[in-house]
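sry for the spam today, last one i promise. struct tokens for design, 225 residues
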């Protein structure tokens, strides 16, 4: 089922003209010159709005594999605060959501898109106020995101274009299947959904069947870096 092991020699600078130049500059400033395999192989599919499952071991760079195209696409779509949420990124734990949020902050330097972290343990009121002002990229844990979708009137997600299920194996291990089902029910159907995971098993495949459009691309990197 896996795509072939493809060795990529590309550099981020080769994406000039294809990806917003501020993103490329920010990647350079973060010290990244070459995309990892999962980043190089998933990027064109992500940019083409395809649903996909990206599997690669922990540490292979899956975070930027989705953050780079997400940010580029929302820039292209001219997302503003008034448009509300364009992308939701679901993480299994508060710590992972925090890490993703930190990377997002660096990718977004000098880019006018709003973002926010939505995790248990934080003050909900602060998050609610943020949602009222307008958040383009939501990073959070399933429980808190579902909570806001149910109870925060100003969680404007009718314009949502992309849903990312990050660390899907861990999401399921933590018992979040029902939360994710609840979130999906509240989101527009006409969206791109992308699932990243270190491992793929029957449970992850079932989640993909539930959340992704039929016939998603499966990209599986056996041995990155
Ligand atoms: P995963 O989600 O696959 O476990 P992460 O996205 O957390 O992996 O990335 C793992 C590490 O690799 C991080 O320290 C990150 O900064 C680094 N990294 C990501 N992309 C690149 C790249 N293109 N070149 C070098 N290092 C990278
Ligand atoms: Mg990860």
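last one done:
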């Amino acid at each position: 089922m896996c795509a072939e092991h493809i060795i990529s020699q590309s550099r981020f600078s080769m994406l000039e003209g294809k990806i917003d130049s501020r993103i490329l500059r920010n990647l350079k400033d973060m010290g990244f010159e070459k995309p990892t395999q999962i980043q190089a192989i998933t990027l064109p599919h992500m940019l083409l709005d395809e649903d996909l499952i990206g599997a690669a071991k922990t540490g292979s760079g899956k975070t930027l594999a989705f953050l780079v195209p997400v940010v580029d696409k929302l820039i292209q779509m001219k997302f503003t605060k008034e448009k509300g949420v364009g992308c939701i990124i679901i993480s299994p734990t508060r710590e992972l959501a925090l890490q993703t949020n930190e990377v997002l902050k660096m990718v977004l330097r000098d880019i006018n898109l709003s973002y926010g972290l939505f995790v248990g343990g934080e003050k909900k009121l602060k998050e609610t106020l943020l949602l009222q002002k307008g958040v383009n990229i939501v990073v959070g844990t399933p429980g808190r995101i579902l909570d806001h979708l149910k109870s925060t009137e100003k969680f404007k997600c009718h314009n949502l274009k992309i849903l990312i299920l990050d660390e899907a194996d861990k999401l399921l291990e933590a018992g979040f299947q029902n939360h994710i089902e609840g979130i999906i029910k509240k989101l527009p159907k006409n969206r791109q959904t992308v699932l990243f995971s270190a491992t793929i098993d029957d449970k992850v495949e079932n989640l993909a069947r539930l959340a992704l459009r039929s016939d998603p691309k499966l990209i599986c990197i056996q041995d990155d870096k």
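The mean pLDDT is 94. ok im logging off now
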